[in-house]
UniProtKB/TrEMBL annotation:
PROSITE patterns: UBA (PS50030). Residues 66-76 have a biased composition (Basic and acidic residues). It holds the Pfam family VPS13_M. Residues 43-52 have a biased composition (Low complexity). Residues 1-76, 533-558 are annotated as: Disordered. Residues 559-600 form the UBA domain. SMART domains: UBA. This is Vacuolar protein sorting-associated protein 13D.
């Protein structure tokens, strides 16, 4: 067989290429022709220097033959084509890099290698390792149309191949070699050698007949084919992998048509892409956060048909244009930004040693005509009418356009928060998108349709359960509107090119709903930080080394970022040398380099600048502006921080039209109607805080001028007034939300040393120790909040944000305090149905039996609640479109049925408050008793028969706990509240069965207890727990308090159970019964003897258990008290209270008080029936000086007194000097001052009062004698202690004609609040205070100017510590 060698035009220097090393036998077909395997080298025979290439080795031909194929009967040509069919089975296939050498390489290099391939004119030597992991097998079926001169019903040449189980690895050098082969060898336009026209049928030639047929059809089925990209050369010891693409089930189709057009189609039914940077022992990952989402491209988990099309890439090229189509279907794509940037840099690598255009033209003169034919003919523009057009003609070039179409269906784009954790938060973009770019359509070069686009966040691993919508599904239309088309007789306008006017991007959508929560903001901040880290620019390259270095080190010295910049500038149509010089002079700034090229370089003729051929460059195709049109844009802010998940507010922009100009003038305008609502959590409804307000907004970015820096000018025009509703609820919710958000964000921010090692839990999916929800909510609420400036600084300075789980929020909880077993169900209804169901009287007990509802289809299943149990529940299940139901006019109601009574009417739980329903006895129950079994609760219930149960009032108390959780407490209308300091027990018994009492659980101090629903009519008694006392003899009755708001009080006494009279100590307390604002009782329509109406007294009362006497110490010191004639005495700390249970307020009592240094007092007589009044108590110190304390007696209820002990004035000395006080014009100092007060200041406040009524109510002071032992301190001018502020000068007279000393003391008086309203707090402080916050010692001195001379009034002193303070009193 004769070996033929084809050398097409290509590179003409040291080149690389593909070679087929075959020894096939001649295959004869039916017409006696021969089939040769052609070798297509990358290098041309012009250069015999050494080069490298690839070699396919050891193919084997199994069989060949001819087979006639009948075409489809439906074909327009009724001709049976004769085909030459060859079946090739190539086994043990391998690919490796090789180098082209001269004919006899051993002449210069020594002995030949065993693997050398020797050809007559050159030889090939293998270099490097194999690209394939294992040898592969390629099956080819080749069909040639032998009747091509007669019919083209089938392609002239059809090749169908099958490739399976192939793993190919490419490093950067191999990728550059293959790309060079595709671009400069296989992709080189080659002249077609055609037979003379007179020897063939004109109908079979496209130029003559116009019929287009297929010349070549090449189809390869790929099964389990993997392509791996390597960062480093392929070696066993150092193998750094970057990515791997697995074509599990794909097809590649190449077709060449007779009109010169070509198409390449890649169809994949199963395609996977992997991030292999951290696979196995790829590289040392110590200190690096690995990416656990290694499968970047995978089938979507929500896809219905797994066998459907996943990816299709279609490229079609004609002489005039080319089109590229991308189809993605049911895929999940993880956007790992750093990996995507690395893969992009890898794929954009240019071939090594690219041929120069001038050299190509020198060696290949025909290439010039080929280039001209490829770019299209240049024709002059038709001369039109007008002024400018008649002077000259404009050359118009028909550019080759690239049309792009992207179709994405059911594909999810996932952005994760933490790459090192599988169970992390993520944001997913999903929808159907069709994008089309057709530059030939000047009016609409770009259009896009985004259908059902949605963005939601979720927790990977449980997407369906945790999916929360951020952007609801919306349909968006995007169009790039070009310049308007001018008429042919436009005149002067012909001088302007249409392409010089930038297009306008229009975005339209009907309604956009955005739901943004606290956790979403945290998630976006974390993702934005990872994106910025991935896009961080590398260190600026040394542009002096921009010229290609030797081949062995080119990849290590030339950064990929420099090549990207060079490609951007070359796309503008400039030479590569000029682009390198521009980048070198502009120090790597791309914008400045482009400006330099426009001013100093000429554009190459073969690369015209324009929007058609350089659409990828942002400098050649800018936008004139962006316009957004929408019917409405609604932004809903959600509070899902800590223990809630509730809407905050909504901002709605109706009839929105926004236009932003881009270019030399940065300006824009917007017109819309603004309205805002906030969500009232207590009423579960929306309330407006911004009324609808139509306005027009404009802005402009102004450059710097002489009088101002660069600034943004904003203007607002409106015809209507802006109405803003500010309510107390809105302010409270704002403060609450701000506090909780700041507390949650700042609770993990603790200053740590920068050199400390990272904690082991950083970057993990679990919450770190101490970060959980175990901390009490009150602790988080009471923490001091940081400022917004501090928050902004923490956002920029924080490196790691812990990925926290969103705790499921259940908005409702039901507590059973009825004392009986209860069942409940939820009901969602509308106000209209509620109004119809309540059209009759709801207060009548007789109507209770008809308490049904028509909304049976909305009633949930009944759930059982045991006594004392709390069960969380919700009305709507967790939805992806969160809080959508809040705008619907619905009522959330509860259906409750207590054991022993019939079902009550539905109760709405949307509002906070106290509601009630009546329940009638259930006589149809099979059980004969009601109550809870002993095993379920510690309340022992007797047998209560249904015949004895009256209709009861069931109370629903709805309260707000935490931030937004509503708790519904179902109880009776009879409450007992313990206001004592000890636990109290309550016993209930029935007059008909006094031997079977019921003792309720003890009531803690300050707590309340609801009497069981079936025991409200029983007698009630109480006693303290664990004190050995009997229950009070007189029962507590509530039936005599009938009118709403009426209060009744009485005293009770519990006798001691000890037989020893000396140890007996009775316990006294007061009972206050208050009737709540329940409606008046109405009779029930029940048939009794004599047909009379029986009235059941329904409880609606609260019983308060109060102490008989409470003594409160409002002094700043300890207080000793006693009651004369009794054993009651004790010590009371400042601000504390003492409850005197043994005090008998029905008798006369004498109260005595003693303080430190005040051992004597005159007892205060408190007679029975004492009302509210204020009295003074006299105390005497050890020097028999008088101090009067203020005693305020408050009557809380009949027999319940509260006594407040306070002082008229507190004198607080903060001067650091000893001060002595007395009443003005008084001869003695104030009580409580002794010799030690002359030497040093008192740390505790001094109790002061005016004891001499004949003297003015003024106070005076002096310096203690211990400061200046040789001086005489004098009293200052009197001052008032009742309010205001002032300054007094304290003089010290010195002996020996020395100048006196003056101390200026500041005085501040403020009145106490609350219980301290009878006290005035007077503070004495220096006028000046020097506080040294520096790290150095500071020396200071006071300077006085007298008669023009400077004298130093005080010696120089030093402040030793950085936190020390120094008071200055001297003037």
């Amino acid at each position: 067989m004769q070996n033929n060698e084809a050398a097409p035009y290509g590179w003409h220097g040291p080149a690389q290429g593909w070679l087929l090393n075959t020894r096939p036998e001649r295959v004869k077909n039916a017409q006696g022709g021969a089939s040769n395997v052609e070798k297509k080298p990358r290098s041309s025979p012009f250069n015999s220097a050494s080069s490298s290439g690839f070699t396919l080795s050891r193919p084997k031909v199994l069989h060949a033959g001819t087979d006639p194929k009948h075409e489809d009967p439906a074909s327009p040509e009724d001709h049976v084509c004769l085909l030459d069919c060859m079946a090739l089975d190539l086994q043990e296939m391998d690919i490796f890099a090789a180098e082209r050498l001269p004919c006899r390489p051993w002449d210069s290099t020594g002995k030949p290698e065993p693997s050398d391939l020797i050809f007559p004119s050159y030889s090939v030597r293998r270099t490097g390792d194999n690209l394939l992991k294992d040898c592969c097998r390629l099956t080819l079926k080749v069909e040639r149309n032998l009747d091509g001169e007669l019919s083209h019903a089938v392609p002239d040449t059809t090749i169908h191949g099958s490739l399976s189980s192939v793993h190919c690895s490419l490093d950067k050098k191999h990728y550059q070699l293959i790309r060079g082969i595709l671009e400069n060898n296989l992709g080189e336009p080659v002249e077609e050698f055609l037979r003379p026209y007179n020897l063939q049928d004109p109908s079979s030639y496209t130029v003559l007949s116009g019929a287009v047929f297929t010349n070549l059809s090449f189809l390869v089925d790929m099964t389990d084919v993997s392509l791996e990209l390597l960062d480093s050369p392929t070696s066993a010891e150092n193998r750094n992998s970057l990515a791997r693409f697995d074509f599990m089930k794909s097809k590649v189709l190449f077709e060449s048509l007779s009109d010169g057009s070509k198409s390449v189609n890649l169809v994949s039914h199963s395609l996977l892409a992997y991030d292999t940077r951290y696979a196995g022992t790829n590289r040392s990952t110590e200190g690096i956060r690995q990416n656990v989402f290694d499968c970047i491209l995978q089938p979507s988990k929500t896809g219905t048909n797994r066998a459907s099309l996943q990816l299709e890439l279609h490229y079609r090229s004609t002489r005039d244009s080319s089109s590229f189509t991308v189809v993605l279907n049911n895929l999940r794509v993880f956007l790992i930004f750093d990996w995507l940037m690395l893969v992009q840099d890898f794929l954009r690598l240019q071939p090594e040693n690219p041929p120069d255009s001038a050299e190509c033209q020198q060696h290949c003169p025909g290439s010039t005509s080929a280039n001209l034919s490829a770019t299209g003919a240049v024709m002059p523009k038709t001369v039109k009418r007008g002024v400018v057009t008649k002077r000259s003609t404009v050359l118009v070039s028909q550019d080759r356009c690239l049309e792009v179409k992207i179709n994405v269906t059911g594909t999810e784009f996932v952005v994760v928060e933490d790459l090192s954790c599988l169970d992390t938060n993520a944001v997913i973009l999903k929808g159907t998108t069709v994008l089309t770019y057709k530059p030939r359509l000047v009016d609409r070069p770009f259009s896009g349709s985004l259908a059902g686009i949605e963005v939601f966040s979720c927790r990977l691993g449980s997407e369906q359960e945790t999916a929360l919508s951020i952007i609801d599904p919306v349909n968006v239309q995007v169009e790039l509107c070009g310049s308007p088309t001018y008429q042919s007789s436009s005149g002067l306008l012909d001088a302007f090119n249409v392409e010089d006017i930038p297009p306008l991007l229009e975005i339209q959508f009907p309604a956009l709903d955005i739901r943004l929560s606290y956790n979403d903001i945290q998630l976006f901040l974390s993702i934005a930080k990872s994106i910025s880290a991935a896009k961080a620019p590398p260190s600026p390259p040394d542009l002096t080394d921009a010229t290609p270095p030797p081949k062995d080190g080119v990849r290590q010295k030339t950064p990929s970022s420099l090549e990207i910049q060079l490609s951007h500038l070359q796309n503008l149509g400039f030479k590569k040398e000029d682009c390198k010089k521009a980048l070198r002079d502009c120090k790597g700034h791309l914008d400045q380099a482009a400006t330099w090229l426009l001013e100093n370089s000429e554009n190459m003729a073969g690369h015209p600048r324009g929007r058609a051929d350089s659409g990828s460059s942002s400098h050649s195709c800018p936008l004139s502006g962006v316009e957004v049109k929408a019917e409405s844009v609604c932004i809903c802010f959600i509070d899902d921080c800590l223990d809630c998940d509730i809407p905050l507010a909504e901002l709605t922009f109706s009839r929105l039209n926004v236009l932003q100009r881009i270019g030399s003038t940065q300006e824009g305008n917007a017109s819309f109607t603004l309205c805002g609502d906030y969500y009232n959590r207590e009423f579960s409804g929306w309330e407006p805080f911004i009324e609808p307000w139509p306005c027009f907004l404009s802005w402009q970015q102004q450059a710097a001028g002489r009088l101002h820096p660069p600034r943004l000018k904003i203007g607002i025009r409106a015809k209507q007034r802006l109405d803003v509703n500010i309510t107390s609820v809105l302010l409270d919710q704002y403060n609450t939300t701000k506090t909780s958000w700041m507390a949650d964000y700042c609770k993990t921010d603790k200053p740590t040393p920068t050199s400390s090692p990272p904690l082991p839990w950083l970057g993990s999916s679990v919450d770190p120790p101490g970060f959980g929800q175990s901390a009490p909510l009150a602790h988080l609420r009471t923490r001091s909040t940081a400022s917004l400036t501090c928050l902004e600084q923490q956002i920029h300075s924080r490196d790691v944000k812990i990925s926290k789980r969103r705790q499921p929020f259940v908005p409702y909880a039901l507590r059973n305090h009825t004392g009986c077993t209860m069942w409940f169900a939820t009901l969602t209804t509308t106000p209209t149905r509620v109004a119809l169901s309540h059209s009759s009287s709801v207060d009548s007990i007789s109507d209770i039996q008809s308490s049904g509802t028509d909304d049976t289809h909305n009633v949930s299943q009944w759930r059982e609640v045991l006594p004392g149990e709390e069960i969380p529940f919700e009305f709507e299940a967790r939805e992806k479109l969160r809080h959508r139901h809040t705008h619907e006019l619905k009522l959330h109601q509860l259906l409750v049925r207590v054991c022993g009574w019939e079902q009550v009417k539905p109760v709405s739980v949307d509002k906070v408050g106290v509601f009630f329903r009546y329940a009638a006895p259930d006589k149809n129950n099979s059980s004969n008793t009601v109550g809870s079994p002993i095993s379920r609760t510690n309340i022992i219930h007797p047998h209560v028969y249904f015949s004895a149960l009256p209709p009861v009032r069931v109370v629903f108390a709805i309260t707000m706990e935490g931030s937004a959780r509503k708790v519904i407490t179902v109880r009776s209308a009879l409450m007992v509240k313990n206001c004592l300091d000890v636990q109290m027990e309550v016993r209930l018994d029935s007059p008909s069965a006094p031997d079977k009492p019921v003792v309720l659980p003890p009531i803690l101090p300050g707590q309340s207890l609801a009497v069981p629903l079936h025991l409200t009519s029983w007698r009630l008694q109480s006693r303290p727990k664990g004190m050995g006392l009997f229950f009070c003899k007189v029962p507590i009755h509530w039936t005599n308090v009938e009118r709403p708001g009426e209060v009744s009080s009485s005293k009770r006494e519990c006798q001691s159970a000890d037989f020893d009279d000396s140890l007996k100590r009775n316990f006294r307390f007061c009972v206050v019964i208050k009737k709540e604002n329940f409606p008046e009782q109405q009779p029930a329509k029940r048939q009794v003897s004599g047909s009379t109406q029986q009235i059941y007294r329904q409880p609606g009362h609260t019983m308060y258990l109060l102490p008989t006497m409470v003594l409160s110490n409002l002094l700043p010191c300890d207080l000793n008290f006693y009651i004369k004639g009794t054993s009651i005495k004790g010590l009371l700390k400042p601000g504390k209270e003492a409850v005197l249970h043994s005090a008998d307020t029905s008798q006369n009592m004498e109260l005595g008080v003693m303080l430190e240094s005040f051992p004597m007092c005159k007892e205060l007589l408190i007679p029975p029936g004492t009302q509210n009044y204020v009295v003074r108590m006299r105390l005497y110190d050890t020097n028999n000086r008088l101090l009067c304390l203020t005693i305020r007696i408050i009557l809380r209820a009949q027999g319940a007194l509260k006594i407040l002990v306070s002082s008229p004035y507190w004198l607080i000395n903060k001067t650091g000097l000893p001060l002595i006080f007395r009443q003005d014009n008084s001869k003695t100092d104030a009580a409580g001052q002794f010799e030690e007060h002359e030497l040093a200041r008192s740390l505790s406040p001094l109790l002061f009062c005016y004891t001499d009524k004949e003297q003015p109510a003024m106070c005076t002071m002096r310096i203690g004698k211990g400061i200046h032992s040789d001086g005489v301190p004098g009293w200052c001018q009197g001052f008032s202690l009742d309010g205001g502020s002032g300054v007094r000068a304290l003089k010290v007279i010195q002996h020996g004609n020395k100048p006196g000393l003056i101390y200026n003391i500041g005085i501040s008086v403020r009145k106490g609040k609350g219980n301290y309203r009878d006290t005035h707090i007077v503070t004495f402080a220096p006028r000046y205070l020097l506080d040294n916050h520096s790290t150095h010692k500071l020396a200071f001195a006071q300077r006085e100017f007298a008669r023009g001379k400077m004298t130093v009034g005080e010696p120089v002193e030093e402040i030793q510590d950085s936190v020390a303070c120094k008071s200055i009193h001297t003037s």
